[in-house]
Amino acid sequence: MVENADIRSCFAAEYVTARQRILDCAEKMNLEVETMNITPKGPHNETLSTDIFWIGPTDASKLILHTSGVHGVEGFPGSAAAVWIMEGIRKKLLKLPEGCAIAFAHIINPWGMAWLRRVNEDNADLNRNFLPPGEAYEGEPENYATLDHLLNPTSMQKGREYYSIRASWHAFKLGFANAKQAVQEGQYTRPKSLQYGGSELAESSRNFVDWCERRLTDVDKIVWIDFHTGLGPFGVDSLLVAEGADETQLKSRYGKRIQPLDPKKGVAYKIRGGIQAGIEARFPDKEWTSITQEFGTIKPIPLLKLARAENRLTQWSGKPPLRLLQSKERREMLEAFSPKSLKWRKMILQRSRAIIADAIGHLSEE
Ligand SMILES: [Zn+2]
Q: Across the chain, which distance is largest between two alpha carbons, in Å?
């Protein structure tokens, strides 16, 4: 059972406090921390980092990997989930099988979390930034150009925009699955627009790749849970897996929430430069079970509307960073990706631990 006090102790209001909470938790467990900084600073001029915690034998051959905050602001519930799982291990409610470790990569995009954006300091979505080695940071989805003027206004002048009506109309004309695909796939041509994947591997992405190179040498089997919010029904998690994954077997281990990344079959869509595909491509000899755990918050069109407004303000208002941070748009981003609702937060914590229990079951199999 998740109590209100657990919500208060797991959820933080700022990046610095979230980081402190997981560090405190790690200290209680005597864990070593690997801290990887990035160059840009947070709003209090604080250092921003991805912190990685390892529990279990250092030479484990099986690993549960938990990553959060790939989409910056989603790191608030992601961090809470990590703290809650860690506490579960400390209290022995979750027990790792022999030869198995668990690692928490706390906030892959710390800049985005500190500044309440989904993207990083270069406006890049890090879940579009991990193109496989050798693939150029170029191109955009077929229909992106058609939707660009709608998604990415290039000034703050607001006429009568009828955004919702036009968005619905476009979705209707292209078909909802096609529109969703065009918007979400990732583009490498318009640095100020939505779903930009960057022009190279970002500093924080590189930090994570470097860590994998250092620490995954002894591991051959990995269950990877990448925590996200903003997709699907309120408080419910969809477990997204690559197309072509063994759905039947995954469902037997992780339940009916398993869904392939196919725009026609569920809440999701195909993407380029996703973190899981990008890391798997770099470590093809490992046996990966990669799951994106996506918790629903609000509906896709209002969410897109919000992301559009926030990006517009950031790119075109000329406001300084601290004013942007205090803006209504950034606050709304926080609420959209980390709702204050206690009911929602309880659902998140409960399922975050439950999926780790399933992963433990999976890695306990012979
Ligand atoms: Zn996300």
A: 63
Q: How far, in Å, is the centroid of ligand 1 from the Cα of 73?
A: 9
Q: How far is the CA of 49 from the centre of ligand 1 (A)?
A: 18
Residue-averaged pLDDT of the chain = 93
Whether the model clears a pTM of 0.90, i.e. scores above it, the answer is: yes
In Å, how far are 49, 106, 120, 179, 306 from 126, measured between CA atoms? Answer: 15, 14, 7, 21, 19
Question: Could you read off the pLDDT of 243-301 as tens digits, one per residue?
Answer: 888 999 999 999 999 998 766 666 667 889 999 999 999 999 999 999 999 999 999 88
- DSSP assignment string, 171-204: HHHH-HHHHHHHHHS-BSS-TTSTTB--SS--HH
CATH code (residue 259) = 3.40.630
What is the rounded CA–CA span in Å between residue 179 and residue 365?
41
Q: Is 270 helix (H, G, I), strand (E, B) or coil?
A: coil
Give yes or no for a contact between 151 and 166, defined as CB atoms under 8 angstroms apart. Answer: no
Cβ neighbors of 277 (< 8 A, separation 6 or more) are 130, 132, 242, 290
Q: 125 alpha carbon to ligand 1 midpoint, in Å?
A: 9
β-partners of residue 55 are 102
Q: Is residue 32 part of a domain?
A: yes
Counted domains in the chain: 1
Has residue 41 been placed in a domain? yes
CA of 65 to the centre of ligand 1 (A): 17
pLDDT at 273: 96
Expressed as residue numbers, the domain containing 320 is 4-135+201-364
Residue 176 C-alpha to ligand 1 middle, in angstroms?
20
In angstroms, what is the span from residue 232 Cα to ligand 1's centroid?
12
158 occurs within a structural domain? no
Q: How many angstroms separate the alpha carbon of residue 302 from the centre of ligand 1?
A: 16
Q: Ligand 1: distance of its center to the CA of 234 in Å?
A: 15
Distance from the alpha carbon of residue 34 to the mean position of ligand 1, in angstroms: 23
Q: Is residue 146 part of a domain?
A: no
